Each structure stands twice: as structure tokens, then as C-alpha cells.
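RETRY 2/3 - previous attempt timed out on the joint model. Re-submitting the same 678-residue input unchanged.
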Amino acid sequence: MESVVERKFAVEIIYNGITKKIEVEAEEQVTAVLQKAIAEFHITQNPHLLSLYRQDGSLVPENESVERAGIKPREVLLLRPNAVKGGNGFLRLASDIVQRTFSTLRECGRGECECAVYWIGPSESNLVNGVEHPIHRRSPFGYEINDHWLTDFWKRLAASKHSVKAQVHTHPGEAFHSATDDNWPIVSQEGFLSIVIPDFATGEISLKNAWIGRLRGDGIWSRLAWPEQAIGLA
Amino acid sequence: MSAIEQLDRTILLCRDHVSDEVSDASICQSLQSVHVLCVADAANLSSHSGQSCLTTVVSLLSRMGMQVALALPEVSMIRRQPPFQGTGLRDSLLASSDKLISGATVQEPSSKHKPDLVFVLGDSTREERACPTWRLSGSEWHGAITQGAAPVSRWTAEWPIGGMTSAVLAAGEAFKYVMRRLPLRSKVDLVFFEPSPDSNWNFGSIPVPARMLDLGAVDFISAGAISQAALYALLRLPYVRIAGRIFDDDVTSQTNFNRNMLTVVSDADLEKVRLVAGRCSPEFNLTPEFQRFVAGAPEARHMAPYVLVGVDDIPSRWQVQRCTRGILVVSGTSHFSISASCHGPGEPCCGCQHPVDDPDGPTAIPTVSFVSFWAGLAMAVRLIRRVVGASYSLDRQHLWMTPLRMDQPHAAVWSPVAPRKDCPVQCLAVSELVSSGAFASPPR
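RETRY 2/3 succeeded.
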């Protein structure tokens, strides 16, 4: 007997106690389903913090297709805030962080060399309240952090109960994550953010043209569509 | 002090949906302009559950700034109903006028103000009115509100969980009434605030303790809204005794009155731990610890067998979990929703449930009386069920509830708590799974 797999089917989404049906396709990404659900409920307050949960309490992985995530026809999914999106992945910046970051990158890189800084903040918080400028060798094509500085940096962080929240570096032209960037982040922890600023940070003081990626549990960097998915003001 | 300041957090919650053009003063005025008539006869007030239902609904309505009228006879209070004082139920409630929120009155019915809503206790007789009317009914663990003509039962139970449940269901309807009268940012949001003609909630009927239930030592981490709601509920349970500690380094502010169930406006600036311990005495012997709970402190070395956590701060929950050897019950609110869970030794812990810090940080948190009360009530029930050996099963370890449309099938969702490899507490459940190799592939 041939089994028939439904390629297009409905799931039920619960938000604030209300249930709505949404049509999904097996090949569709879960992120697309999430966006549909957010649109269906007309949610405008912090929609980036929402995720889909199964009734067994588990999170529906957003980097999978509906089929690979195991979503079944008529399955009931709960749309609710996901602290992970606001925690490890979501950073709250003190008001001067972006300005300080650009100033440092411009001053050091002088429009001709790559440069890097690290955003730091209290360990048990998602607040970014400091910008660390490492000792590094620089060129138009890359940068290399000084080992001694790095050792000292880790000691200072531990003593002050701070941690690295994100790494930020510049590229000569387009912002993207190179293979080196992929393989050698300063922190290899799920949820860690990497930000690449184009044009040696000589453009607008804003993250809107930056490449922003979040490290997934499987070691792959997932590019975010817009900064607000991961960064907000404190 | 002004009602607009005291209702600040409720106004903030309304702002989730209310149009930006509406001022805070207008939202405050909408809350204060609602007149609710509570009707009860002597028969329905002759039980502790009926009395607890009445005091709870009056308190929850007042803490939203609403005007309450009481059409009921005077009866003796069967048991203490803190923070209401006195021996006569009606007089005690009337005396609370203007004392829970400034300008929120509790009065006898007057021809000057026609009620917008009517709540009738049990099968009390009432005159027909052309405004939305619900009957509040229930039993020991079950509460309901109904609009139809179908007969409902009289309040007879001594055990008051059902009474408080019915009251909080009714309070939610009053709040939705206000929201329906305000211009919303999006008309589709009205679906969340439509009236629920009939709704009910059952915490699960188990035999109620027949005699003294001494919980022994219980530690309360926080003396804020959730802990106060839990203690408000526990104080009303007959024959329950507690001796423990309550930790908090905060004093009562004006913006606490909208949800702190054991607090009255004259308590402003008092240490929360002292006022709560005082209001719980003599039934509960709570030692006030006017300090923030810190894992390394001497006070944290010997935690009570039962620990109730009502703090919003996620890292603080992890700290408490690391120190707890017995049962940990955690409750909290997120806008219109509540999250309540219980964690015993060897079970996935509160770090598995709340694995990362909250995004909002120490900002003003939107709250409203009835949502915070649900969180505390669920916490109290979980504690009692643990103590009497009738815990919820592990597939109900976590409750997510949005108590707006309680007539909807998915207003509440029970779920298990999955152990997480990245659990910040690294609890026993996670350690066992790691050592067994269960995390060979990434956990979902």
C-alpha cells in the first residue's frame, strides 16, 4: 500500500488563548510559518521575540523546513515569547555603544585596514555596556588578535564577571562572513553574534547595512534579516 | 497619591493593544468609570468558599481601579480574609473602599450609578438588569462563571480554591469590558477581549485535607505580586500552617497596589517582607528577611523543603534552584499570560524551563491584578498538591495560561519540561541524561 504524505496542510496556532488555522507546506521554512502566524494575529509588539512551541513544551526549530521539523497536519502549536531570542541571541545596547564602535573602527582602520572590537557586558545579563578594542595586527585584508592581549582579556572578564556578547569587525567593501570569520569566532557558543561592518565602517553610523549572524547549535552561522532581530537599545 | 500612578502598570499592559492616541489619563478613567454590582444572599455567603469568592472578586476589581457596589446582607466572617479587617464580611469590604487603589470605592448600591456589569454569587436571587451578568459558582477546586439561565449551584464548600478561581474568572471579564470600550490599535485584537459567556477552570479534583495541614518550613523568594497572591490563597485554606522565611529587599511602591493582594495604600514605603509577614500572622509564622536572596549567603545554606519563587529575574531563579534540595515552585507573568511550574529533585529544573535571562531587564513590567493572581493561585495549588502527595504528573510540569478568553479550548496549555543540555543550573535530570549519552544528538 502506498502511503500519501500531505504536502500542504493546516496547523492550529494558539496565541493569547485564541486558535487560528494556518496553511503550511512541507517544504516551507518554519521561519515563514512563524511570520505567517505573527501576521495572522497582527502582532506588532516585539514580534521578533516570539517562537512556536509544541504541546510537549519543545521549541519548533526555525532553521528547518516544516517537514524536517516534524510538524504534522492539524498539529497545535503555541505562539509565545521565547526568552532565548531575548537572552543569548538578543542584546540590549547601552546608548553609546554603536557610536563608540564606529569611532574605534574608523580611528584604527583609517579607511584602509580591517579592525575589530568586542562588545562586552555583565555575564548574567544580555546588556552590552562596553566596547573592547583588542591589540591586533591589521591589513586591508584581515586582522590578527595578539595572543597575550587575549589571555589578559579573558582574565579581566572573569575577574569582573563580564563576558563577550558579540564580535564586530570591518570589511573593505561588502559585509559578509568569510570562511575565516565562520571558523574562528572569539566565542563558539550557540547564540553568539558576529557583526561585519562594510567599507571599513566609513559609512553611516548604523547597523542597518551590517552583516549580522548568530551561531547555531550545529556550528553554522545563520544570517539575520535585520538588526532588530538580535539587537535593541537598553 | 493618584490612581493614575497606582494603576501605571495596568495602563502599561492596556497599551499592548490600545491606540497610541489614547492618553494614560483616558485609560485610567476608563478603568475607574466601570461600576460593578456584586450580589449575594446569606445562603451563598454561609460557606468559606462563597466568602472567599466575594472578597477576592472585590479585591481584584478594586485593584483595577473599578467602582464596586455590594448588594448583600451582613454575615459573620467564617475565617480571616486578609487584608480585609473586621468580623462582619460586608462591613469589612465596605471599609476597604479607597484603600486598595485611591478612588476605587466599595459602596452600597446607589441609584446614582447603574451597574455596567453584575456578578451574582451562586444561586443568589437577583433582579433582572439590562447589563451583562454572570453567575459565579464552583466547588472545592473548580470555579465557573455563566451567563445563561441554566441553574447553578450554591456555594457550600469550605475549601476555597474554586471560589477564588471563579472570582478571578469574573475579574477578567471586567477587564475585557474596559478594553472593548477603548480604541484599539488594531480592530482584530478585539478577539482577545470578547466576553466569555461561560468559562470555567478546574485545578483537578483531589480529596481536600480533612485536618490540620502543617506545611512545615517554606521559603518565599520575593514578597511581590506573585508571592502575595500565593500567600493570599494559602491563607484562606482551612487548617494550613506554615513556618518559614520570606526574602525581599524591596519596599512597597505606589505602582505595586494594582496587584499586591495583601497590601493596602497605607503600606506605601514599608518593607514588603515585614508587611507580608505581619498580614500572614498568626496562621503563618514567616520570618522577614529584608535582603535580596544570594546563593552564597549563610541564609541560603539551609533552604526549606519547599521553596516558592515569584521573582521576575531569571538568574535569581537559577540561584535559588541551585540552593534548593526539595521542591521548587516557580510562577511568573508575561503580559497577559502566566507561566507556572514545579521542580522536584531529579526532575527538569527551572533552569531547563527558563534557560536564558529575560530580554526586558529591569524595566517597568506591565501587570494587571487578575493575571498576577492567576500566577499566585496556580503556585499555591501546586504547593498544596505536592504536600498532600497528589502532584501533577510530569506531562503537566508547566502551565502556560492566557486568562483572557477562558472559554477557548487552548486558553491554557499544560506541558512537560524538557531537560536541556545547556541548562544553566546543570540540574540532576540533565546530568543523568548527559552521562547516559541521551544528548549525543542536539536536544530539541
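Chain B has twelve helices and 15 strands. Closing ticket.
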